[in-house]
Design brief:
The protein is of the alpha/beta class and about 300 residues long. Helices cover about 35% and strands about 20% of the residues. It binds glutamine.
């Protein structure tokens, strides 16, 4: 995906910064939380240090607050398989009313994080474009939605470490004359999900490697963009690779273009006013990565079927 390469590399790949706002750079009024404690731990000795480390890793309840006591509210758009979707069965969490059940990689990982923190996971299902504002305005505790870390988004929320990767791919009808991303520039209409990185790249100016706002139609979710593609309202859909595979698998006559993919990192976004929660969630997440739980969950939804 050559056209995207320049912007992506310049704007999005500077991801080596520490999680949760980095050390001491958080702009919160509250006390620095767990990251600072790591320093204390190194000064302590033996068992004390070990105990302090365990406390920090467990993110003890006293250290953070959540929107609703005893609950961890996850802002997401549950139309993004295999990361988040509604479930016909019990799933791994429900909405606040307990009536809609959810599953997917993000939902399962979030449920495990909540369990480690002694909280109950609650899913706040909304449009993708609202997940970050919902966290910023204190309605939800964390945004987890196959959410790509970008420099712009980092201005609005703090991110945990990354737990998965994705790439933007192009879906076209099997008989399309679009063979490469360069063909998208030939007066084609591209369908994207509103507010996503796919939208950001495609709607950017031609000079910046995009195709221009006039060549992009935004839809509320991926399924609607795919319907528009099938109805011939758009010539292509740009979306993350794993949802793309699932959409192509269940819709006849579509294919994914073989292009030069640029890797994006998915992470959890948390309010800059709640560094203690970010640290606690990040610690729990890292434990789940270290003990192989995250990989097991990913394999269950992705690799197993291949
Ligand atoms: N990874 C993309 C983004 O963060 C799309 C996420 C989504 O649609 N749920 O913009």
């Amino acid at each position: 995906m050559k056209k995207y390469a320049a912007i992506l590399l310049a704007g999005m790949m500077a991801l080596s910064l520490a999680a949760c706002g980095g050390s001491g750079s958080g702009n919160s009024n509250k006390e620095e939380a767990a990251p600072a404690e790591t320093e204390t731990v190194t000064e302590e000795t033996g068992t004390d240090a070990a105990e302090a480390a365990t406390d920090a890793a467990a993110g003890t309840a006293a250290e953070f607050t959540t929107v609703s006591e005893g609950e961890l509210h996850m802002a997401t758009n549950a139309a993004f398989p295999p990361y988040e979707m509604t479930s016909d069965g019990e799933g791994y969490a429900t909405d606040a009313a307990g009536s809609v059940h959810f599953e997917g990689i993000d939902v399962e990982v979030a449920a495990m994080i909540a369990e480690k923190l002694g909280l109950k996971l609650v899913i706040d299902d909304m449009e993708f474009g609202s997940v970050i504002t919902s966290v910023q305005s204190g309605k939800a505790d964390m945004a987890m939605a196959g959410l790509t870390v970008t420099e712009d988004r980092k201005q609005n929320v703090d991110f945990t470490d990354s737990y998965a990767t994705g790439v933007q791919v192009v879906i076209v009808p099997e008989d399309s004359d679009i063979a490469t991303v360069d063909d998208l520039a030939k007066d084609k209409m591209i369908g994207v999900q509103d507010g996503t990185t796919g939208y950001i790249y495609c709607s950017d100016t031609v000079e910046n490697g995009g195709y221009g706002e006039d060549h992009v139609t935004s839809y509320t979710n991926g399924a609607m963009a795919i319907e528009a593609l099938k109805a011939g309202k758009v010539d292509a859909v740009v979306i993350d690779n794993e949802p793309a595979k699932q959409f192509v698998a269940v819709n006849e006559g579509l294919k994914i273009l073989d292009t030069e993919y640029i890797v994006e990192n998915y992470a959890i976004g948390i309010s800059k006013d709640n560094p203690a929660l970010c640290a606690a969630v990040n610690n729990a997440l890292n434990e789940l990565i270290a003990d192989g739980t995250v990989q097991q969950i990913v394999d269950k939804y992705i690799n197993a079927g291949e």
